[in-house]
Amino acid sequence: MQTIQVGEFKARFSEMIDSVRAGETIVVAYGRNQEKVAALIPYDQLPASQPRQLGVLAGKATVAFSDDFAMTDEELLGA
Hints:
By secondary structure, the protein is α+β, with helices and mostly antiparallel strands. It has helices at 6-11, 13-21, 73-77; strands spanning 2-5, 26-30, 35-40. A three-stranded mixed beta sheet has the order 1-2-3.
Protein backbone atom coordinates (compact mmCIF):
# COMPACT_ATOMS: atom_id res chain seq x y z
CA MET A 1 0.00 0.00 0.00
CA GLN A 2 1.37 3.37 -1.02
CA THR A 3 0.35 6.74 0.51
CA ILE A 4 0.67 9.81 -1.70
CA GLN A 5 -0.17 13.53 -1.36
CA VAL A 6 -2.96 14.96 -3.56
CA GLY A 7 -0.58 17.15 -5.61
CA GLU A 8 1.75 14.27 -6.37
CA PHE A 9 -1.23 12.04 -7.14
CA LYS A 10 -2.49 14.58 -9.70
CA ALA A 11 0.96 14.89 -11.28
CA ARG A 12 1.48 11.12 -11.49
CA PHE A 13 -2.12 10.03 -12.14
CA SER A 14 -1.39 7.73 -15.10
CA GLU A 15 1.43 6.06 -13.19
CA MET A 16 -0.86 5.57 -10.17
CA ILE A 17 -3.54 3.99 -12.36
CA ASP A 18 -0.94 1.57 -13.73
CA SER A 19 0.02 0.66 -10.14
CA VAL A 20 -3.62 0.02 -9.24
CA ARG A 21 -4.07 -2.10 -12.36
CA ALA A 22 -1.08 -4.14 -11.14
CA GLY A 23 -2.95 -4.82 -7.86
CA GLU A 24 -1.54 -2.08 -5.58
CA THR A 25 -3.71 0.06 -3.30
CA ILE A 26 -3.03 3.81 -3.36
CA VAL A 27 -4.03 5.95 -0.35
CA VAL A 28 -4.45 9.68 -1.02
CA ALA A 29 -3.47 12.08 1.79
CA TYR A 30 -4.50 15.74 2.05
CA GLY A 31 -3.24 18.79 3.94
CA ARG A 32 -0.41 19.49 6.36
CA ASN A 33 -1.45 16.67 8.66
CA GLN A 34 -1.56 14.27 5.71
CA GLU A 35 -5.09 13.20 6.58
CA LYS A 36 -5.94 10.07 4.62
CA VAL A 37 -9.03 10.95 2.57
CA ALA A 38 -9.35 8.27 -0.11
CA ALA A 39 -8.10 4.90 -1.25
CA LEU A 40 -7.86 3.76 -4.84
CA ILE A 41 -8.17 -0.03 -5.03
CA PRO A 42 -8.31 -2.49 -7.91
CA TYR A 43 -11.89 -2.97 -9.09
CA ASP A 44 -11.85 -6.71 -8.38
CA GLN A 45 -11.15 -5.94 -4.69
CA LEU A 46 -14.26 -3.76 -4.41
CA PRO A 47 -16.59 -5.25 -1.79
CA ALA A 48 -19.84 -6.67 -3.15
CA SER A 49 -22.81 -4.39 -2.64
CA GLN A 50 -25.46 -5.42 -0.16
CA PRO A 51 -29.10 -5.79 -1.24
CA ARG A 52 -31.18 -2.73 -0.40
CA GLN A 53 -33.44 -2.94 2.61
CA LEU A 54 -37.02 -1.68 2.66
CA GLY A 55 -36.21 0.52 5.66
CA VAL A 56 -38.86 0.45 8.38
CA LEU A 57 -40.77 -2.22 6.44
CA ALA A 58 -37.83 -4.60 6.22
CA GLY A 59 -39.13 -8.12 6.77
CA LYS A 60 -42.75 -6.89 6.94
CA ALA A 61 -43.62 -6.17 3.33
CA THR A 62 -42.96 -7.53 -0.14
CA VAL A 63 -43.79 -6.36 -3.63
CA ALA A 64 -44.27 -8.25 -6.87
CA PHE A 65 -45.27 -7.10 -10.36
CA SER A 66 -46.81 -9.40 -12.93
CA ASP A 67 -45.15 -9.67 -16.33
CA ASP A 68 -48.07 -7.93 -18.05
CA PHE A 69 -48.15 -4.94 -15.67
CA ALA A 70 -48.43 -1.64 -17.55
CA MET A 71 -49.24 1.92 -16.50
CA THR A 72 -49.29 5.05 -18.61
CA ASP A 73 -47.67 8.29 -17.48
CA GLU A 74 -51.12 9.82 -17.07
CA GLU A 75 -52.27 6.98 -14.80
CA LEU A 76 -49.09 7.31 -12.73
CA LEU A 77 -49.60 11.06 -12.32
CA GLY A 78 -53.32 10.66 -11.57
CA ALA A 79 -54.32 12.83 -14.52
